[in-house]
């Protein structure tokens, strides 16, 4: 074994082998893979090997496409067969809602270049004769689904990597990792030590343990998973190989395995495996079968596919594999550690392993994953993901693997967990809650005396009229919103402003002022959008996106903040409230001594004030587009402030409003959101944030790239559309058409209640961005959409400045 390497990859499952291969492909040859036993000795060896391209996140779908296309390449390099069977696949819908879901999936596939086809149940039957079409309403055909041989794929990656210069050692267990002061690692194994500049945790079933070696608890959990293989089926004789098939309502997948069929299920009563620790002596073992547990799914399967009921079971496989709470992989550098990378929680190694390896290798070699992998970034989880939280969410995710998640659906596991002091107050107002980073927040308020629940649907729900009432209350009087679920950082010290001027694309405002600031990477791509509030010479209060807190912190750490700046994440130390609407100034003026007139406290002012007895940081700003104020108070004061505002606001008809109304109002103002309109694949000018870049400063991260983007114009543009939507507003990821061609995609959408218009925001090719007429494909129908040349509501922004 080499004793000094550039990278030590821990784990020789399909994911570690893919990372190793992609590192060599990207030019790093001095790389070593360390495997405890033999390659594939974790989840990989007993996988069913199925692969498909469809994924709820289009960016993950793209990487799945890449993975499937990669198999030819590694077969060619290595001479090792991957056992690829591209049979095509059919996804069956048992309900009209599922058919709608398939229509939406097909639409998304358009701008990914996927060749998906919607079929009637009879057409599905022609492709897949084993099904009983009476149980289905239709389906979708994908020509590039199929299955591979897990052993073959892993060895093809491994051999290709070796040909590229990598070394692989087997029967060698990493028992500890020790950080050196220069950021490199001593990798301690039972066969001697290796000094590695970088370490990759691709430990699969043991990734938690490899995380614990460096003091982190990765939010992953293994679940038991069973599939069975039947004896040979007479029905298959003389037929070409059967398609891969997913029966969503039956929660079953099937494919042909030699002369028989394989059937697997994601049963509702899923069982976690090794909840706290994975035993090191678990090798190429299987778990005892538990057919009882999957009996309800099998019964449905036998009904839907009668040939299965007539044939014997040859083999049952029960094996564990890992999931993150949302079912997507965990990839990237871990904040707080130097040169420690993860590629784990990969639940679909044969669809995703290639994309995971590719993006991690790019990230390590080029400093950037090269694709939008926010949905897989390990930094999307923060410290709320305790073992028990992860356990509850992973079980829920597993049990719902084949169920529809409606766009307005909130999932119940691990809730309520984190609440703010006004939680009961909001509950008493009949709030319908959602959770965000495990924190409860009000989505909307049901009329008192009615049930605070929302029916789940792809169309407008029972919330629609009530959200409208909230928007109108804000528009004509005053509304109160909780904003605790925003991310916050207190940046203090003599070097605070200097450092922020280096990291942010806008300059730090004067004391008492607020500035909006995009944050860019060296490529000029958007990696954050902040509100910078200057409290004093040496203090800036930053407001951003809470889910990205670790993502931001990792970036801040990378920028090496100088001595004299202290960055304190304080999202949960400062809770937030906001009031908005034309009466909000009168209301607040009753409670503070300061003069709130526009002359004395104009738009984008920020000041410490006493609101009644409550010390608060107060900003004159609102995401609603109305006159409004935001309050940041330490958590102990939030309830008092809420009560004070509600009591003082009674004479102005104050009413609480929730996240749904806020979303409606920000769409009317064409305001973007992180992770929807603002993501690391877009440039600031593409996203319409160019005006918030201050180029007068000589140096800040991303300056040159942003200048180049400004000069070149970028590839696409964020536009707003008024959509003739019927009763189903856009939600995001729908294709945007122009002149019969797909020219972009929606990033978010909803109904603008103040302007009585359905609105969508989305990116289109720059060449057509100035056109007037577009179409948005909503649930299978191309709906007319007219570009809004300016925000739909108060385009000049007079109301918020009044
Ligand atoms: C029954 C079943 C069916 C499945 N079907 C499919 C399917 O149809 N399609 C699909 O895409 N996926 C399927 N999967 C999931 C798939 O198996 C996983 O996505 C994939 O195997 C994950 O690979 P990995 O490399 O991350 O982890 P693993 O396969 O667990 O590999 C981790 C490796 O790291 C090694 N290791 C860990 N710690 C150390 C250490 N300290 N030192 C040295 N080595 C270490 C282990 O020995 C192991 O070989 C299935 C899984 C199961 C259980």
Describe the protein in words.
There is one protein chain. By secondary structure, the protein is α+β, with helices and mostly antiparallel strands. The chain has 18 helices and 39 strands. The strands form 7 sheets. Strands 5, 6, 7, 13, 14, 15, 16, 17 and 18 form a 9-stranded mixed β-sheet that branches. Strands 1, 2, 9, 10, 11, 12, 19 and 20 form an 8-stranded mixed β-sheet that branches. The longest helix is centred in the first third of the chain and has 21 residues, at 58-78. The chain binds flavin-adenine dinucleotide. Flavin-adenine dinucleotide binds at residues 10-16, 34-37, 41-44, 46-51, 173-174, 202-206, 210, 225, 227, 317, 319-321, 344, 346-351.
Query: Alpha-carbon distance between the termini?
Result: 71 Å
Gyration radius over CA: 27 Å
Count, helices: 18
Helical residue percent band:
10-25%
Question: Strand pairing plus helix content: what structural class?
Answer: alpha+beta
Shape: globular
Q: Enumerate the spans where pLDDT stays under 50 for 5 or more consecutive residues.
A: none
The largest sheet is:
9 strands, mixed
How many strand segments?
A: 39
The distinct ligands, each listed once, are:
flavin-adenine dinucleotide
Tell me what portion of residues adopts beta-strand conformation: 25-35%
Mean pLDDT: 96
């Amino acid at each position: 074994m080499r004793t000094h390497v550039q990278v030590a990859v821990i784990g020789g499952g399909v994911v570690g082998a893919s990372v190793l291969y992609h590192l060599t492909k990207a030019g790093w040859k001095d790389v070593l893979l360390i495997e405890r036993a033999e390659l594939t000795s974790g989840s990989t060896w007993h996988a069913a090997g199925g692969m498909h391209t469809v994924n709820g996140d289009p960016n993950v779908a793209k990487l799945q496409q890449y993975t499937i296309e990669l198999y030819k390449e590694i077969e060619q390099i290595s001479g090792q067969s991957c056992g690829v069977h591209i049979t095509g696949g059919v996804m069956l819908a048992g309900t009209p809602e599922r058919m709608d879901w398939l229509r939406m999936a097909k639409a998304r596939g358009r701008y990914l270049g996927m060749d998906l086809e919607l079929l009637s149940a009879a057409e599905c039957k022609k492709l897949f004769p084993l099904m009983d079409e009476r149980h289905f309403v239709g389906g979708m055909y994908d020509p590039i689904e199929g299955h591979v041989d897990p052993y073959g794929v892993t060895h093809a990656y491994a051999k290709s990597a070796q040909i590229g210069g990598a070394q692989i050692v087997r029967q060698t267990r990493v028992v500890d990792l020790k950080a050196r002061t220069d950021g490199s690692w001593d990798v301690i194994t039972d066969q001697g030590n290796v000094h590695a500049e970088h370490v990759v945790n691709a430990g699969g079933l043991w990734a938690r343990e490899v995380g614990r070696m460096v003091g982190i608890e990765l939010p992953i959990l293994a679940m038991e998973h069973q599939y069975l293989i039947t004896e040979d089926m007479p029905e298959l004789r003389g037929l070409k190989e059967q398609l891969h098939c997913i029966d969503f309502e039956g929660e079953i997948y099937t494919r042909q395995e030699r002369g028989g069929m394989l059937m697997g299920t994601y049963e509702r009563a899923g069982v976690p495996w090794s909840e706290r620790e994975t035993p090191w002596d678990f090798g190429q073992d299987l778990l005892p079968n538990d057919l009882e547990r999957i009996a309800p799914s099998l019964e449905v399967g036998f009904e839907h596919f009668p040939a299965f009921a007539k044939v014997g079971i040859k083999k049952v496989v029960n094996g564990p594999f890992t999931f993150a709470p949302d079912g997507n992989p965990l990839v990237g550098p871990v904040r707080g550690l130097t040169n420690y990378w993860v590629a784990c929680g990969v639940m679909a190694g044969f669809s995703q392993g290639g994309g995971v390896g590719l993006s991690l290798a790019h990230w390590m070699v080029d400093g950037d994953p090269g694709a939008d992998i926010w949905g897989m970034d390990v930094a999307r989880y923060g410290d709320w993901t305790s073992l028990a939280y992860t356990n509850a969410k992973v079980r829920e995710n597993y049990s719902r693997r084949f169920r529809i998640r409606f766009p307005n659906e909130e999932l119940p596991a691990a809730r309520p967990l984190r609440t703010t002091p006004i939680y009961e107050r909001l509950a008493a107002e009949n709030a319908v809650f959602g959770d965000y980073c495990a924190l409860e927040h009000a989505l909307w308020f049901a009329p008192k005396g009615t049930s605070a629940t929302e029916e789940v649907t792809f169309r407008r729900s029972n919330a629609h009229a009530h959200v409208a009432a909230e928007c109108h209350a804000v528009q004509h009087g005053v509304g109160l919103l909780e904003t605790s679920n925003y991310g916050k950082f207190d940046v203090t010290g003599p070097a605070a402003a200097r450092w922020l001027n280096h990291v942010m694309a806008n300059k730090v405002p004067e004391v008492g002022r607020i500035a909006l600031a995009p944050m860019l990477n060296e490529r000029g791509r958007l990696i954050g959008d902040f509100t910078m509030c200057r409290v004093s010479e040496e203090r800036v209060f930053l407001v951003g996106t809470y889910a990205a807190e670790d993502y931001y912190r990792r970036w801040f750490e990378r920028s090496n903040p100088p001595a004299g700046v202290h960055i304190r994440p304080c999202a949960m130390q400062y809770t937030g409230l906001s009031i908005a609407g034309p009466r909000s100034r009168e209301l607040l003026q009753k409670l503070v001594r300061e003069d709130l007139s526009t002359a004395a406290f104009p738009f984008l002012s920020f000041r410490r004030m006493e609101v009644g007895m409550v010390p608060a940081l107060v900003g004159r700003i609102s995401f609603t587009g109305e006159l409004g104020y935001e309050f940041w108070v330490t958590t102990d004061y939030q309830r008092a402030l809420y009560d004070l505002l509600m009591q003082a606001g009674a004479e102005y008809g104050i009413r609480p409003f929730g996240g749904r109304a806020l979303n409606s109002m920000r769409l009317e103002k064409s305001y973007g959101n992180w992770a929807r309109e603002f993501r690391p694949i877009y440039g600031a000018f593409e996203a319409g944030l160019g005006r918030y870049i201050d180029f007068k400063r000589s140096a800040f991260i991303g300056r040159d790239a942003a200048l180049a983007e400004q000069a070149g114009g970028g590839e696409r543009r964020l536009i707003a559309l008024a959509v003739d939507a019927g009763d189903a507003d856009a939600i995001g990821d729908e294709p945007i058409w122009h002149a019969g061609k797909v020219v972009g995609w929606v990033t978010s959408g909803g109904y603008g209640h103040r302007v009585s218009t359905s609105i969508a925001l989305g990116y289109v090719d720059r060449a057509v961005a100035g056109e007037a007429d577009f179409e948005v494909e909503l649930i299978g129908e191309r709906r007319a959409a007219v570009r809004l040349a300016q925000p739909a509501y108060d385009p000049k922004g007079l109301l918020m400045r009044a």
